[in-house]
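Readers of this paper often ask what the protein records in our data store actually look like. The remainder of this section carries one protein's record, kept here as part of the documentation.

:::
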Amino acid sequence: MSIEKEGARNMKGIWKKGIAIGLAIGCLLMAGCGHKSDVQNALPDKIIIGLDDNFPPMGFRDNNGDLVGFDIDLAREVEKRIGIPVSFQTIDWDSKEAALKSGQVDMLWNGLTITPEREKVIAFSKPYMKNDQLLIVRASSNIQNKDGFKGKVIGTQEGSSSIDALNRHTAFQQSLGEVKKYGDFVNAFMDLQLGRIDGVLVDSVVGRYYMEKKAGQFRVVDTSLGEETFGIGMRKEDTALCNKINQVLKELSDDGTMAALSQKWLGEDITLKVK
C-alpha cells in the first residue's frame, strides 16, 4: 500500500473516532440538561412563601406577633394536602419579583394581583379571589367622587396593584397634587386618619377590612379604577409546583374550604370558582 493511501486510511480512522467521541460527549451533556430540567420541574422538599406581613386581612401580625390572615390559612390548608412544609418570610414587597427570581422565596402569596406586567416575569396560579380598587376618604371629607381629588394628595402602597391602577388611569393621576407612597397600607390609613393626606387608593379586601375595624371613620367615594383577581406568584420554570398548587386550589374551591375562609376573614364569600 502506498504511503498516500495509508495516510488517508489513518486520517479516516481518526475522523471516525472524533465523531464517536463528540457524540458521546453530546449525549452526556444532553443527559445532564435533561436531569437539570427534571430537578427544576420536580416538587420541592419545602416551600418558602414571601409576603408583606402588614396586609390585613390577607397576611398580617396579630397582637401576639403571629402571622394570621386569609392567605396564611389558605397556605396552611395547601400545606396539609400536598404534604410539603411551608414557611413564611417577610420581604420588601416593592422588590418581590427579584426575591422570587433570586430564590430567596419560592412563592409570592399575599393578595397578589394578576397583572399583564407581572405575567411577563413570573408565573401565576389560577385566580382564586376577586378584588378591585377603592378610593377612600375620611368620613368628614367634602370629597364625593374621584373628580374631587384634583390637586389633592392620595396615599397608596409602593409596589402594589394600586400603583398599576394609577398608571392605567393617567388623566386621574395627572389631576392629583401628589401621590404619596408608603411601605404598607396601614401607615397610609394612619396618615389619612390624621389628615396628612386626602385619600387612600387601596385594594378592596384591605380597604373594607380596615374600614370595618375603624367603623364610621372612613367612606368609599369611588370603585371605578379597576376590577382585579388575586393569584399566587411562582417562577416560570416551576411548572410542576404550579400545576400541583392549581390542583389543590380547585379542591379547596370545590369542597367549600376557600369560601369558609373568606367568610371568616371578610364576612362574605368573594372567592372565585377555581376550574
